[in-house]
Design brief:
The protein is mainly α and about 675 residues long. The protein has a domain of about 270 residues: Fumarate Reductase Cytochrome B subunit (Up-down Bundle). The chain is about 55% helix and about 0% strand. It is built from 30 helices and five strands. The strands form two sheets. A three-stranded antiparallel β-sheet has the order 4-3-5. Strands 1-2 form a two-stranded antiparallel sheet. Helix 10 crosses helix 11 and helix 20 packs antiparallel against helix 22. The longest helix is centred in the middle third of the chain and has 37 residues. The protein is elongated. The N and C termini lie far apart (about 130 Å).
Length: about 675
């Protein structure tokens, strides 16, 4: 019986079902043990948090190569993320999935949603909206800068597509997003950070450029001397709104960026034609890097520098190559691209020219503004006391008829009108360049159609003005030749100054002071003669210097290069003198004296003048014509009403234009940063 019981209690080890059940139990227990072991060593596996991510990403990960990758192409890698660096960065308070929203599980081959890769700009933009809605702007002021930078980046050259590689440079290429932090200004950390910028740009993308930079004057100062004042990549190219160097936005802004460090050189550059038209939107002109180089800039006294004496001509000929512009020649090399009128030791010719023009300003304006002011107060006092203009009592000729006396013929009037219009256009286009730094200059230049159109208007106007001037000279010469037997160079009909003019000028000042009577004038008053001969001076100085600038290759065949510095000073300063004189002294003498109010005086448009005014202003000629019996041949019918109205409208328009030009010139003069020191 006991044997039978023993037999019943024995396990049937040879039964297949027993083996199957045993295997299942052991396998289940093994799996449960492994899970418990992993849970014991890595408790974060059941959730998607930073610890989970760092369990893999604390070391670099090599990804499988793409199917279409080249054999020599290294497989893609994910850089290691170090927890201690994250803690020091600006994103330390954020979790991994705040940015990596596309990750939804913690498997090695992550399951991803349809959301794209991290979008730095979008994230900061969303954060900014939250800050605004919660009224936290004052507490999060730096976010304003971040959002502005992000928006600038979106429009930059770096954000442009680079094919399958995505954008040319992403935020992470420069900022190392996981541990990024901009140290405060003035700290040693800030110094260390700024000194790494060339390597950040060069090692990542621009390796050839970095090679040039490290040997340049800027690179040596940064890399060897740790000089924070020396230029790094971002000083010239900016940080976020980087533009393509071959396009206008970069070419039109680079000089001012150089000027952030080289202030004096920038100011002197902007007083030259190169700098003036570049500032107004013309990119095809010499900029800092055209002459000095860009990444490989060397000191000026370095024999290998682009602007050394040995290389300067070749550098200039890069632009002045004889094709689009006249070819630069050796005699031009004494031209000073940064010459100013304040340094006699370096630029004596420019200094002397500048001081001469300033002395001329003082003399002309001191005399004529005093003359105008005294004249105004004397006529004003006379009118207030009821003292009318002086008259010479004579019998009226053709009494009862509306007659006037003819002073200027048709040719004189047409010439004056064209001359006035051309001069105003020259002042508008020329002073816009001369005062290119003024707030109004860019607006005027855009209204004119840009520097190229403005330059064309300037040259056409100059041709018209010079043409009228030379035609006048020819006409005067013919008239003198025809009347050579009777013409008197210092007679009453001549515009050549004589002793009477000096006596009249002295007499006017005595009259201003109430010490004598008002002088009696002949056909031409001394101020009319001054206006006339001022044109000859202006044509010689402004026109002559303008022609020399228009044909530099011809000028350089005869004169040294520094002459261009001198004539640029003279051309601009004399134009300023002419503009201010015309629109103050000339306008006052002819339109704004109390006896001329209301303006305008239309004698230069109708050609005629009332007998009353003629007797008052040109009494000696009037008496002479009466005594000789020639007065009647100069008498003409008064201009028609339409002619009078049209002349007044034209006069008002020209006066308004002149005063508007005077306003912008004065604003330019007082805007600071005046050309040539």
């Amino acid at each position: 019986m006991s044997d039978s019981i023993k037999t019943k209690n024995k396990v049937r080890v040879n039964n297949p079902a027993t083996w199957l059940i045993t295997g299942i139990v052991l396998t289940t227990m093994s799996l449960l043990w492994q899970t418990d072991a992993m849970a014991a060593t890595n408790p974060a596996t059941d959730k998607l948090d930073d610890a989970t991510c760092l369990s893999c990403h604390s070391k670099a990960i090599t990804l499988p190569a793409e199917e279409d990758a080249d054999e020599d192409e290294a497989p893609p890698r994910i850089a290691a993320v170090h927890d201690e660096k994250i803690e020091k960065g600006v994103h330390s308070g954020m979790s991994c999935t705040t940015c990596h929203k596309e990750i939804v599980d913690n498997n090695a081959a992550h399951k991803k949603t349809g959301i794209g890769k991290p979008d730095c700009a979008g994230c900061h933009r969303d954060a900014w909206r939250t800050i605004q809605s919660e009224n936290l702007i004052s507490e999060k002021a730096r976010m304003v800068i971040v959002v502005q930078n992000a928006e600038a980046y979106k429009e930059s050259f770096h954000a442009k597509s680079a094919g399958k590689e995505g954008v040319k440079a992403s935020c992470d290429d420069c900022h190392h997003t996981h541990d990024f932090n901009v140290p405060p200004r003035g700290t040693s950390k800030r110094t260390e950070w700024q000194l790494t910028i060339p390597n950040v740009c060069g090692d990542k993308c621009h390796d050839d450029t970095l090679e040039d930079y490290v040997d340049s004057v800027h690179g040596k100062e940064v890399m060897e001397e740790h000089n924070l004042k020396a230029a790094v990549c971002t000083d010239c190219h900016t940080t976020h709104d980087i533009t393509k160097t071959s396009q206008d936005p970069f070419k039109l802004s680079i000089t001012s960026r150089c000027g952030n460090c080289h202030e004096e050189n920038y100011l002197s550059y902007t007083s030259t034609l190169h700098g003036q038209i570049n500032k107004l939107g013309y990119s095809f002109t010499a900029k800092c890097y055209d002459c000095h180089g860009s990444h490989d800039i060397l000191k000026v006294d370095d024999p290998d520098s682009m602007v050394s004496e040995e290389n300067r001509l070749e550098t200039c000929q890069e632009c002045h190559d004889g094709k689009k512009m006249p070819k630069a020649i050796a005699s031009m090399m004494s031209f000073g691209p940064h010459a100013t009128g304040e340094d006699f030791n370096k630029y004596p010719q420019t200094y002397i020219a500048t001081k001469f023009m300033h002395g001329l300003f003082i003399f002309v304006f001191a005399y004529f503004w005093a003359h105008s002011l005294l004249w105004w107060q004397r006529e004003y006092k006379d009118r207030k006391r009821g003292i009318g203009p002086q008259h010479i009592r004579t019998d009226e000729i053709l009494q009862g008829k509306a007659v006037q006396i003819r002073r200027f013929g048709l040719i004189w009037r047409i010439g004056h009108l064209l001359f006035a219009i051309s001069v105003m256009l020259l002042i508008l286009t020329g002073m816009t360049v001369f005062y290119s730094y003024s707030a109004w200059a860019p607006y005027v230049m855009r209204a004119l159609g840009g520097p190229e159109i403005s330059g064309l208007i300037h040259r056409v106007s100059a041709a018209v003005m010079l043409g009228i001037f030379f035609l006048h000279l020819i006409g005067v010469s013919i008239n003198i030749y025809r009347n050579r037997k009777t013409f008197r160079w210092f007679g009453p009909d001549s515009l050549v100054p004589n002793w009477k003019d000096f006596r009249d000028a002295w007499g006017m000042f005595r009259w201003f002071a109430g010490k004598g009577p008002r002088p009696v004038f002949d056909r031409w008053t001394y101020w009319e003669k001054f206006d006339y001969w001022a044109v000859f001076w202006g044509m010689g100085v402004i026109g002559g210097s303008g022609m020399m600038l228009a044909f530099p290759h011809v000028t350089a065949q005869i004169l040294p290069g520094w002459i261009f510095n001198v004539i640029m000073v003279v051309h601009g300063e004399e134009a300023f003198l002419a503009a201010v004189f015309l629109f103050t002294v000339h306008f006052f003498n002819n339109h704004f004296r109390p006896d001329k109010i209301p303006p305008p005086d239309i004698v230069m448009f109708t050609g005629t003048q009332s007998l009353d005014e003629f007797r008052r202003d040109h009494a000696m000629q009037y008496l002479r014509l009466v005594e000789s019996g020639e007065l009647e041949k100069y008498l003409v019918d008064a201009p028609s009403k339409p002619m009078t109205i049209g002349s007044r409208i034209l006069g008002i328009v020209l006066l308004a234009c002149g005063l508007a030009l005077l306003t912008i010139v004065v604003i330019g003069f007082f805007s600071g940063n005046a050309p040539h020191g």
